[in-house]
Design brief:
This is TTC12 protein. Keywords: TPR repeat. It comes from Catharus fuscescens (Veery). Pfam families: TPR_1. With about 575 residues, the chain is mainly α. Among the domains are: about 80-210, Tetratricopeptide repeat domain (Serine Threonine Protein Phosphatase 5, Tetratricopeptide repeat, Alpha Horseshoe); about 220-335. Helix content is about 80%, strand content about 0%. The protein contains 33 helices and no strands. The chain has helices spanning about 1-10, 15-30, 35-50, 60-100, 105-120, 125-135, 140-155, 160-165, 170-185, 190-215, 220-235, 240-255, 255-265, 275-280, 290-305, 310-315, 320-330, 335-350, 350-355, 365-370, 380-390, 395-400, 405-415, 425-435, 440-450, 450-460, 470-485, 490-505, 515-525, 530-540, 545-555, 555-570, 575-585. Helix 9 (about 170-185) runs antiparallel to helix 10.
Length: about 575
């Protein structure tokens, strides 16, 4: 009994659980026959007499032991109830942490996993999940510590523990081990793939830096030149043009792979420690000389980061850089715009780079990048490329919600209304991006509820005569796709506008572009169930006869939409049923 008490109060979860199980086993044994109970009681009293009671009668000892077991039973039940409550809370916090992890918010994920562990210290998944989040933030010591705890709680989790312990092994050994584990445990494919990629990048970094060190020791002229230029830039009190010229020369020197490594190993990313350089880069309004210096910095970072993921990570780790990117996109200098967009594109065009970007606050980026649709030069295309890359990321979708209704929707509506005055190919891509963002239910609901957005879409469709330019037709096609996505929602705005929406789509059924016709039928198939009035409107326009025509001559997708449109009409209208029987021979 003394051992049981000690086990129940142990801080070690495994020991505590074992003691609880032993206690429950003994309590169950109390339910046997009375003779067996007395025999067991006598045995326990005899065995534990020196521990429980060294004086008094055997009857008193039995009474004391019985009372103790009753108290122990009550305590065990209370502990079990507390554990069940704590396990429920820990599981809920684990799911919240998993959601944050999937969205790329690793700091929040760590916070939720830690709160779960406060509730249930022996929950192994919380340790390993938190270790994965630490790994994402490159906090390897903490990841190792969590894995060690996970192994203590559940030793068979040695594969997960090995993954993080290998972070301090040689990258080659880590990569080979990850690949072997991927072969033996395919169910952990996503985790292992990321680990293989981490090991590959670490292996590449070490290889590059070892090669650069050998080249520097051999008297490399490039290494000497980069070191000298960085020293000149770090010297205070020089004119802006002096720094601009040195940065331009440095950009040329680091354009090669070895130059990028020399730049990194010589602390090139600390260039903003120079107050004059930082002042020009972070200025709210810039003189021509400051604009030139800022452009030179952007060119330097593009040269240093092109195809170099380690350098990309180091650049965005500089607080002044990550905080200033949005401000540079809002500056009054077209050249700064172009070079900032080009720099951001280095990150957005691949998965790891997007993850680096999404560690920043991008809540303003959708509005800022959409505004470039008004530009008539390559800036519009560059901005749309970046938006297209980011739109599929859940974390970006989540960040967009903060300013969507107040900042993004008014701008988007304005772009729709002014479709003939903006770069139409870029506008079509912007509409497609908004359609992709509709994968987020919250953003889709905000768009679908906006009467101004619907009216902007209808106004754009109104301006689609037969002789419209190819760019305008792209906009019409994109807007119809957006409308189909928004019609996944059901609200009063859609019900109010169902008649004009149906009328615009009915008018497009005679368009020469088959893609536009198919999407117009798709919109009809989704908007008609929202309004009997809309059904009557399209019936007057001969929709039944038109749909039968498309069923005979259209493709598979067109036929599918046509059947759904007919189903919506015949469900709510006797007239539609009669027309279908009349025209369908």
């Amino acid at each position: 009994l003394a051992n049981l008490l000690q086990g129940l109060s142990s801080p070690d979860g495994a020991v505590r659980d074992k003691a609880i199980a032993e206690t429950e086993k003994r309590l169950q044994e109390q339910g046997g026959s009375r003779e067996e109970e007395e025999e067991e009681e006598e045995s326990r009293t005899t065995l534990n007499r020196t521990l429980i009671n060294t004086s008094g009668s055997a009857r008193a000892e039995a009474v004391d032991a019985g009372g103790f077991l009753a108290a122990l039973e009550k305590d065990a039940k209370e502990r079990a109830q507390r554990r069940r409550r704590n396990e429920q809370l820990a599981n809920a916090l684990k799911e919240q942490g998993n959601e944050a992890f999937r969205a790329g918010d690793f700091a929040l994920a760590i916070q939720r996993y830690s709160q779960g562990l406060d509730r249930l210290r022996d929950k192994q998944e919380l340790y390993t999940n938190r270790a994965q989040a630490y790994l994402k933030l490159h906090e390897y010591e903490k990841a190792i510590s969590d894995c060690e705890w996970a192994l203590k709680v559940l030793p068979e989790m040695d594969i997960i523990g090995t993954i993080f312990q290998l972070k301090f092994s040689s990258p080659l050994q880590s990569r080979q081990c990850y690949e072997k584990m991927l072969q033996t445990d395919p169910q952990k494919e996503n985790l292992f793939k990321e680990c293989v990629e981490e090991a590959r990048l670490e292996e590449k970094r070490l290889r590059e830096e070892q090669g650069a060190e050998r080249a520097a020791q051999a008297g490399s002229a490039a290494a000497a030149s980069i070191q000298e230029l960085l020293q000149r830039i770090s010297s205070p009190g020089q004119h802006l043009l002096y720094y601009t010229g040195a940065i331009r020369l440095l950009a040329e020197a680091v354009s090669s792979g070895s130059g990028q490594t020399f730049f990194r190993t010589n602390n090139g990313f600390s260039i903003l420690r120079n107050e004059t350089v930082r002042g020009a880069f972070c200025a709210e309004s810039r003189s021509p000389a400051e604009v030139e210096l800022c452009v030179s910095l952007l060119l330097l970072w593009r040269a240093a980061c092109a195809g170099n993921e380690e350098n990309q990570q180091l650049l965005l780790a500089q607080p002044a850089v990550s905080a200033q990117l949005a401000e540079l996109l809002c500056s009054g200098s077209p050249q700064i715009h172009r070079d900032t967009l080009a720099l951001i594109s280095l990150f957005s065009e691949h998965h790891r780079g997007r993850r680096l970007l999404l560690r920043q606050d991008l809540s303003r980026w959708l509005q800022i990048l959409l505004a470039f649709v008004k530009c008539t030069d390559a800036r519009a295309d560059s901005a749309m490329n970046i938006l297209s890359d980011l739109a599929g990321e859940q974390r970006f979708q989540a960040q967009c919600q903060a300013k969507f209704s107040t900042d993004v929707l008014p701008l988007f509506t304005q772009l729709l209304v002014c479709a003939r005055q903006v770069k139409q190919a870029a506008l079509a891509r912007a509409v497609a991006v908004l359609g992709s963002l509709c994968a987020d239910v919250g953003l889709r609901a905000q768009l679908a509820q906006s009467r101004e957005c619907w009216q902007g879409c209808l106004q754009l469709l109104d301006g689609c005569p037969a002789g419209s330019s190819p760019g305008y037709l792209q906009c019409v096609f994109a807007v119809l796709g957006l409308m189909m996505n928004l019609l996944l929602e059901s609200n009063s705005t859609i019900q109010d506008l169902a008649v004009p929406i149906s009328g615009r789509c009915l008018a497009l059924l005679s368009h020469q572009d088959g893609r536009i016709v198919t999407r117009a039928i798709g919109v009809l198939s989704r908007v008609l169930p929202a309004s009997p009035s809309a059904v009557e409107e399209v019936l007057r326009g001969g929709v039944v006869k038109k749909m039968l025509k498309f069923l005979k001559a259209g493709g598979q997708l067109t036929c599918s939409y046509a059947i759904k449109t007919l189903a919506s009409c015949t469900k709510s209208s006797r007239r539609a049923q009669e027309e279908l029987l009349k025209w369908d021979k």
